[in-house]
Amino acid sequence: MPSGDSSAAAPPRPRASTALMVLATLAVGYTLWAAQAVLLPILLAMFFALVGNPILRGLQKIWIPRFIGALLVLLVGLAATVMLGRQLVVPAGEWMQQAPRELRLLTPKLKRMTEPMQQANQAAQTFAQVTKSDSKPPKVQVVTIQDADPWKSLTATPKMIASVLAVVLLTYFFMVFGENLQRNAIALLPTRQRKKITVDILQAIEREISRYVLTITLINIALGMVLAGALHWLGVDLSEALLWGTLAALLNFAPYVGPLIGVVLMLLMGFITYDEIGPSLLPAAIYLGLHTLEGQILTPVVLGRRMALSPLILILALMLFGWLWGIIGLLLAVPLLVCMKMVLARIEGMEGWARLLE
């Protein structure tokens, strides 16, 4: 008989190497970047469908069929977007045309504010020139002028229209047929107990995420309306005030990064619009105060602790999705992170990963 310990442990299961995990992560990241033309319309449509689902449930309670309710929600949303866009096209175009000239006029104001620093800098440069023994020839700057390619603009317009139509159609189909698709996918599970658990998890996640996305959207709209009202009260034209309020509402979907950009824009707008330092700083101060009230009081009270996210994880997610998908990635980073957290919290054995995101 062969000698040896019959109770010897079985050989350990092979694990994926670190290099293989890194390569898989890079492959997934490249796929997300390369397939953004397909993924972004789908993700935007899912986002808009999540916003509309609570409204659809309310309409179903008053005996309005889901396909009619989805059509009404979509038409109202499109009508509001078109009306707001018509109000914002003129002031946005004026600002884009006048921005270079206004920024040149802004230079004397900033020079008056930084005059002591400029005097000190000039004195240091004079001292350096006096003590300098040799002189170097001035640098020659070469400026290249590149004309815009009209063919790129011509081909970009149909692509943009196709993307917008795809988002609209996918939003409608997600709102109408999303539940049927979910039921058909659950029917593929083997046991009835697993089907019941999966249905409970998916329904709870869908309700909470829909409520979260709708709540955040309403809060951001309220923030933009209050800011627009405050700017109009300060003497800014109504259409221009609506432009800044809309920008503030959109930027607020990207925490930290969006408000920082908003403060800079409000500072520039204030210095361009007003001649004195006090009124120039007032729009940025109002925006910063409103954002502080929203971020520190309103949103935590309305959403509660279960929707809280770690600031470090949030910044990393904004950097990642912003690098992958640009502005749209910044807008979708927080909803995607909340979805990930809630899914992990509902799966047995993955609760620790959900707590890692808090």
Topology record:
Blueprint: H1 18-34, H2 36-61, H3 66-113, H4 115-131, H5 150-186, H6 192-233, H7 238-251, H8 257-273, H9 277-303, H10 311-346, H11 351-356
Describe the structure.
By secondary structure, this protein is an all-alpha fold. 80% of the residues lie in helices and 0% in strands. The protein has eleven helices and no strands. The protein has helices at 18-34, 36-61, 66-113, 115-131, 150-186, 192-233, 238-251, 257-273, 277-303, 311-346, 351-356. The longest helix is centred in the first third of the chain and has 48 residues, at 66-113. The chain is globular. The termini are far apart. Residues 143-148 have low confidence and may be disordered.
